[in-house]
Write a structure and sequence with these properties.
about 325 residues, mainly beta, Tachylectin-2, Chain A, five-stranded antiparallel sheet, four-stranded antiparallel sheet, about 5% helix, binds beta-L-arabinofuranose
Length: about 325
């Protein structure tokens, strides 16, 4: 009898170890609900995703965030930003982009979907002591509230260069600008030519800019096509400077008729110190045609020996587990 108990205990331990070895993946989407334009980032050895709540514009009055210690399970942080705390923002709160500076977290967002310079809204910035909020309005007004070089003030991405300078890339309506942020993110520093907004629009650009550095090269990425349709996708260019010139290399993310449509508006996470990269993006399930029915997914992104990005295989299985040494 004693031997049988010992045998069963040993068997259970072995099975549990085996189950941990054959660890499951997260599956896509990585969390439930309609969420789009996800920005993935690492803070304090945890993964975070900041998406748009994908719903009719009048209902887009808050932002939720999600965190994970292993890319497998995600915890929701509801309403980290709410228009109740941003007096000028009424609707269409879109495409958050976040950065840590001097122990504070700055969340850039678009609001109100302005159609011309007479409407109130544009790109705002909110601040918090924690990546999990709550965020309060940093300026009490938008940071960019007008069209410059034809760019609708939406789809901002905040980027820290190698020399410590912060830049804001942004723009909808097929135009992309870059601007140099000042020290406390209350405004911009003009470039040498006196201009504040420098247009850097590459061929086919529509919206959703993103930038990262690999081997001292600047990879600039953006979304192409219409976000409500199946052909939404992501393309990229590589340059020696954050201002380009950006010559389009090609698409790296798009629909797969067997998996999902409308794959686009993405961000990239690099595992610190490793040549391991993840693309965080939204896509539409094959069963859905409603423009807002977008869900947040993660897949692996790889490079070839020339440093070009390999086309991403969008999957149902997703990725993980990955931990950051907690
Ligand atoms: O989610 C609203 C808008 O849809 C974003 O600003 C665009 O980039 C598109 O993804």
């Amino acid at each position: 009898m004693k031997n049988l108990v010992l045998f069963i205990a040993l068997l259970l331990t072995t099975l549990s170890a085996a189950a941990q070895t054959i660890q499951k993946t997260a599956g896509n989407p990585v969390f439930p609900g309609w969420y789009a334009d996800p920005e993935g980032i690492i803070f304090n050895k945890k993964f975070y995703i900041y998406p748009t709540f994908s719903a009719p514009y009048e209902k887009q009055v808050f932002l939720d965030a999600f965190s994970s210690e292993d890319l497998l399970t995600w915890k929701k942080h509801p309403a980290i930003l709410d228009t109740a705390a941003i007096k000028w923002a009424k609707r269409a709160v879109w495409a958050p982009s976040i950065i840590e500076k001097d122990k504070k977290y700055y969340l850039f967002f678009g609001a109100n979907d302005i159609q011309n310079d007479n409407e109130k809204g544009g790109i705002g910035v909110a601040v918090s002591d924690s990546p999990e909020g709550p965020f309060k309005d940093h300026l009490g007004k938008p940071l960019i509230d007008k069209f410059h070089n034809g760019a609708q003030p939406i789809d901002q991405f905040v980027f820290k260069d190698k020399d410590g300078q912060y830049y804001l890339f942004y723009g909808g309506w097929r135009h992309c600008n870059v601007a140099k942020l000042n020290k406390d993110f209350t405004g911009f520093i003009p470039f040498e030519d006196g201009k504040i907004f420098r247009e850097i629009t590459p061929e086919n650009y529509v919206e959703g800019p993103f930038m990262f550095i690999k081997n001292s090269k600047y990879y600039f990425m953006w979304s192409e096509g219409g976000w409500t349709g199946p052909n939404y996708s992501v393309a990229y260019a590589v340059a020696d400077s954050p201002f380009g010139p950006f010559k389009r290399v090609g698409k790296i993310l798009q629909q797969d008729p067997k998996v999902a449509t409308g794959a686009g508006h993405h961000s990239i996470i690099q595992i610190p110190g490793k040549d391991r990269w993840f693309i965080v993006y939204h896509r539409r399930p094959l069963t859905e045609t409603d423009g807002n029915h977008r869900e947040t997914c993660i897949d692996e992104m790889t490079f070839n020996e020339k440093g070009e990005i390999n086309p991403v295989k969008i999957t149902k299985e997703g990725v993980g587990p990955v931990t950051l040494g907690i």
